[in-house]
Amino acid sequence: DSPALLPLLRWLARRQISTVCVAPHMAPKDLEEFARSSVVVSTTPVDLRPLLGTCRLAVLNGGHGTVCACLMAGVPLVLMPRLLEHEITAYRLVDLGAARIAAPDDVESAGAALEAVVNDERYHAAARALAACYAGASERENIASLVDDILRLQG
Description:
Number of strands: 5
Largest sheet: 3 strands, parallel
Strand content: 5-15%
Structural class: mainly alpha
Helix content: 40-55%
Order of helices and strands: HEHEHEHEHEHHH
Number of helices: 8
Shape: globular
């Protein structure tokens, strides 16, 4: 529950950017605000994998499962880490060129990161290159390999 979440969703809605947001603790009044917008908010978990083929980017805190699913689909990331493990993952993915980091409490930082990732093909190319490295293996094998590779980069 980032302080920047509502302002970021409003920013996306104003630009009519199709967005799926999983926010388990969002208040009903805030859910209502996005009911007739391009932003769809779910308070329950969503299997994002079917949506990833049409994603231009993903905005995440940086949990390994969702990060891996996005990267295996070739989706670049804007990461707003809230925990140390998220931050470590975020910096490694920045090093790989597939992500930008935004401060979790700063909507301007998030907006700038979104604009950069959407408009710079290098993030998309890096994410696709990572996906190609893991193509052909099972999801379980890919996740294990990707996590191992990220941890190896941490030195």
